[in-house]
Design a protein that fits this description.
Layout (H helix, E strand, L loop, with lengths): L4 H10 L9 E5 L2 E5 L3 H11 L11 E5 L8 H17 L2 E4 L4 H8 L6 E4 L13 E4 L2 H10 L1 E5 L2 E8 L8 H12 L7 E6 L8 H9 L8 E4 L3 H9 L18 E6 L6 E3 L7 E3 H4 L6 E5 H4 L2 H11 L9 E5 L3 H9 L2 H7 L3 E2 L20 E4 L15 E4 L2 H10 L9
Parallel strand pairs: 2-3, 2-5, 3-4, 5-6, 8-9, 8-11, 9-10, 14-15, 14-17, 15-16, 17-18
Antiparallel strand pairs: 1-7, 12-13
Keywords: 4Fe-4S, Amino-acid biosynthesis, Branched-chain amino acid biosynthesis, Iron, Iron-sulfur, Leucine biosynthesis, Lyase, Metal-binding
Catalytic activity: (2R,3S)-3-isopropylmalate = (2S)-2-isopropylmalate
EC number: 4.2.1.33
Length: 416
């Protein structure tokens, strides 16, 4: 019997010819990413829990300060200094103030065929380039950092066969929210979500990152896509070559197969307080909002900013709405500046921020208060995710978020 993409990557990392779902294998980890959300805890364990602290291969480590940038308190400043000093002492590749960790990784590090651990749940975004990215906690991260290895329970794979093309005004964000709503927040628990089919050729790299990024919200261990000409073009544009390009075998076994016609997808909103609590955006129309957010590792790329800026041309942000626009990286910020998009946002009354996690993290920028409502391109809408416990977060595409910022209530682009 053949193997899926996930199984092939694990087999390569384990140095074996074949793996099956349910097997446990010791694997060589290709790359390790950590951000300022938890790295200070890893450092404390490194110094206080290990008898012989060392790093197996410093060239595999990438550390990124992105969650609270600039720091929001003396406590945050201290934890970031700890991270900064450790990285300098050990020669760890270090980014600060240059963007959201997953966007930086996609722009600079991720290669097809790699097995990557990230101390952040949305590491599954790397599947857009055919890499097995998965989120881990501090203990697993530290073990891999010190030994270069870890263990992996081989997941079953859910296959999503995509056909057709998304309609005008409908985006990859709407597609993945539809899928999460269909299978549920636990529908892919410890499974790989694999995307394939003729519809893939109609999805840009930005689309693919957005899709893979949110798969963890269905419980997925990872998300994966075949490496095609679109992915290779992106890779070569960024000066990298694949480690290995895998596709599932014709006789590979899938736990379930879903056929999805992209032409049937419509604008979607995820209502509070769960990502799978979805409905057609028009059903949520009219809900008053206090804040809108365009950014995050899911929808802060140049394509998303172009969508928002196009809608804002010759329009204004509603006077009772705070609209925060946060490019996902410095590269995105500079491109948006070059194209005049940031000027459009600011002249319309939006607040353009430095590249970082910002409102999605709900800690240092745009925190919402009691009873307030946010519509966001962020990754989660759990209770208290963006501020006060008794606030409300809706998730939607860049177009729906921008239209809502203009109207002062949830709205789709065709309602402007």
């Amino acid at each position: 019997m053949g193997m899926t993409i996930a199984e092939k990557i694990i087999a390569r990392a384990a140095g074996v010819s074949e793996v099956r779902p349910g097997d446990i294998h010791t694997v060589e980890v290709d790359r390790l990413m950590s951000n300022d959300g938890t790295t200070h805890l890893t450092i404390d364990m490194y110094h206080n829990k290990l008898k012989h602290p060392h790093i197996a291969d410093v060239n595999k480590l990438v550390w990124i300060v992105d969650h609270n940038v600039p720091s929001d308190s003396p406590k945050t400043a201290a934890s970031q200094k700890k991270m900064r000093d450790f990285a300098k002492e050990h020669g760890i590749k270090f980014y600060e103030g240059q963007g959201v960790c997953h966007q930086i990784m996609m722009e600079n590090h991720v290669c097809p065929g790699e097995l990557i651990f990230g101390a952040d749940s949305h590491t599954c975004a790397y599947g857009a380039l055919g890499a097995f990215g998965t989120g881990v906690g501090c203990t697993d991260y530290l073990y891999a950092m010190v030994t270069g290895k870890s263990w992996v329970l081989v997941p079953e794979t859910l296959r999503f066969n995509l056909t057709g093309k998304l309609p005008e005004g409908v985006y990859a964000r709407d597609l993945i929210l539809t899928i999460i709503g269909k299978i549920g927040a636990n529908g892919a628990n410890y499974k790989a979500m694999e995307f394939a089919g003729d519809g893939m050729k109609n999805l840009t790299m930005s689309d693919r990152i957005a899709i893979c990024n949110l798969c963890v919200e269905a419980g997925a261990k990872t998300a994966l896509m075949e490496v095609d000409d679109i992915a290779l073009h992106y890779l070569h544009e960024h000066g990298r070559e694949p480690k290995a390009c895998f596709a599932s075998d014709a006789d590979a076994h899938f736990a379930a197969v879903y056929d999805i016609d992209l032409s049937t997808i419509t604008p979607i909103v995820a209502k509070p307080h769960f990502v799978d609590n979805v409905c057609p955006a028009k059903e949520a129309a009219g809900v008053k909002i206090d804040e809108a957010f365009l950014g995050s590792c899911n929808n802060g790329r140049i394509e998303d900013l172009r969508v928002g800026a196009e809608l804002l041309k010759d329009r204004k942000v509603h006077p009772l709405v705070r609209f925060l626009v946060v490019p996902a990286s410095q590269a995105v910020y500079q491109q948006a500046l070059k194209e005049g998009l940031l000027k459009i946002f600011m002249e319309a009354g939006a607040i353009v921020m430095n590249p970082n996690c910002s409102v999605c993290w709900g800690s240092c920028q745009g925190v919402i208060g009691e009873g307030e409502t946010l519509i966001s391109t962020g990754t989660r809408n759990f209770k208290g995710r963006a501020g006060h416990r008794d606030s409300f977060v809706y998730l939607a595409s860049a177009a729906t978020v921008t239209a809502s910022a203009i109207k002062g209530e949830i709205a789709t682009a065709d309602m402007l």
